[in-house]
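Exercise 3.2. Students should predict the tertiary structure of the chain below and write it as structure tokens, then compare their answer with the key that follows.

Predict this chain's 3D structure.
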Amino acid sequence: MLLVVSAGSLLGNLHRIVRERTTVSREGLVLAGRRTRRVAWPPSRSYFFLRTRRHLGHAEACAWLLDPAGTALRVPGTRRLSKDEDRALLAAAAAVQTIWEWGVTRAVAYDDGSYCPAPNDAIEQERRASDRRVSYLTSCGIVPGTGAHPGAL
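Answer key:
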């Protein structure tokens, strides 16, 4: 019975890995998950944010994006798992930074300095806490995406 449950879980995760992705283009982002959504480049980097949760002894961090209507959309392909929450958070932050830098280097994304709060107060508090945590870890010299100090690489 346990083997069947484990196999089912493995197949579900494999399906998610193969099917879920974010595609970036000059027109915007295509968020392909359970539903496929096309979103224009946000007016500011701050429209991307991170959320974390603990699950079965592991931390999961994932990027989210506020669309122009203020709806929070999960960014497929940015989910990162680790036993250490900071590592998962920094890895997801690195994925967001890669997406944003792609748009900036192609002159289709730029930061106009605007900030749109999340529609839900609990999500907004989590968003701000994640931003503070990433800023703190980065200021300590921890390299986003690896969780390692520069001297340890």
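Discussion points: The beta strands are 21-25, 28-32, 36-39, 48-55, 58-66, 72-74, 80-82. Residues 43-152 form one domain.
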